[in-house]
Amino acid sequence: MPPQVSTDETDELFTVAADYLRKRLTPELSQPKVAIICGSGLGGLVDTIEETDKVEFSYEEIPGFVSSTVPGHAGKLAFGLLGKNKMPTVLMVGRFHFYEGYNLKQITFPIRIFKLLGVETLIVTGAAGSLREEFETGDIGVLSDHISIPGFCGVNPLSGPNLPAFGPRFTALSDTYDYELRVKAFKAAQKLNFTPGSIKESIYCFAGGPTYETRAEARFLKSTGGDVVGMSTVPEIIVAKHCGIKILGLILVTNKVVEKKPKSADPMNYQQMMNYQDQEPVNHEEVIALGVSKAKDMKNLVKTIIELI
């Protein structure tokens, strides 16, 4: 059993967790250079690392980690060598979410551990809904920016006392998404002969969940310039930026967001009532299913990007 430690965010807590992992790994695996967060339905990314070298830990056994409770999230860390260049890599097979009842410091706790272990590059994957006609289901968005709706209300993983051992009190986010990594993502897609236009730069809107957006909320997010919307990703990215880790965000578009105004009940709006064609509501099982069906594409893309690093 791992030692019982406080859930308060302290340098000591991070050190305890990092030491727990380091002592149970070979020297090579204990110093991963790349971390990958596997989003909904994308746990198959763990198959990118070589089975003979793989070492796994359930979240429950790692000091300070909470449990992943969402279907499609296995809840484990996997360490191994990835790609032709045998890159030492750690994968979060399943992430934590705000809507599970965790605070943002619990959600982002693993990022601090990755930094202590030596991670230099974070690849964050996830599923999201499309706010744009040109973003089809199955497309992959390469994040160039984000909009944090909870952040507007002061809900930020960097709130509270700063941790100067990791980064500054005030962290600039204007250059969050590493340009060279984004270039490599497009080069990798080209190398894999992805359909032209199926990988696009995108702006991610972070909403707290667990409800999907109302129609009015979807139209509002679209008006802000957002391309896709999801319930994760941004908290981890903010903390990674605070830690000085290079970041690449890859988002699988799993559904079209419902934004059409509902059918009018006003008899004076007879024409709209008669001609109305509604949109199907979002279904989480379908989101997971599409993630699984497209896991091979995402897996090959991530593997090829790492081979270009």
Task: Summarize the structure in short.
Phosphate binds at residues 40, 73, 95-97, 127, 232. This protein has 309 residues and is of the alpha/beta class.
Structure commentary:
By secondary structure, the chain is an alpha/beta fold. It has a single domain (11-308), classed as Nucleoside phosphorylase domain (Rossmann fold). Helices cover 29% and strands 21% of the residues. The protein contains 9 helices and 9 strands. It has helices at 11-22, 104-117, 149-152, 179-191, 215-223, 234-242, 270-275, 284-293, 295-308, and strands at residues 34-38, 55-58, 76-82, 87-93, 121-130, 140-148, 199-206, 228-230, 246-256. It has a 5-stranded mixed barrel with strand order 5-8-7-6-9. The longest helix has 14 residues, at 104-117. The radius of gyration is 20 Å and the shape is globular. The model is unreliable at 1-7 (pLDDT under 50). It comes from Diversispora epigaea. A purine D-ribonucleoside binds at residues 213, 255. Its EC number is 2.4.2.1. The purine nucleoside phosphorylases catalyze the phosphorolytic breakdown of the N-glycosidic bond in the beta-(deoxy)ribonucleoside molecules, with the formation of the corresponding free purine bases and pentose-1-phosphate. InterPro entries: Nucleoside_phosphorylase_d, Nucleoside_phosphorylase_sf, Purine_phosphorylase.
Number of helices: 9
Rounded to an integer in angstroms, the radius of gyration calculated over CA atoms is: 20 Å
CATH superfamily: Nucleoside phosphorylase domain
Question: Could you list the spans in which at least 5 consecutive residues all have pLDDT below 50?
Answer: 1-7
Question: Any idea of the CATH topology?
Answer: Rossmann fold
Number of domains: 1
Strand order of the largest sheet: 5-8-7-6-9
* Largest β sheet strand count, sense and barrel closure: 5 strands, mixed, barrel
Mean pLDDT: 91
For the terminal residues, how far apart are their CA atoms?
37 Å
- Structural class comes to alpha/beta
Helix content: 25-40%
Write the element-wise H/E pattern from the N-terminal end onward.
Answer: HEEEEHEEHHEHEHEHHH
CATH architecture: 3-Layer(aba) Sandwich
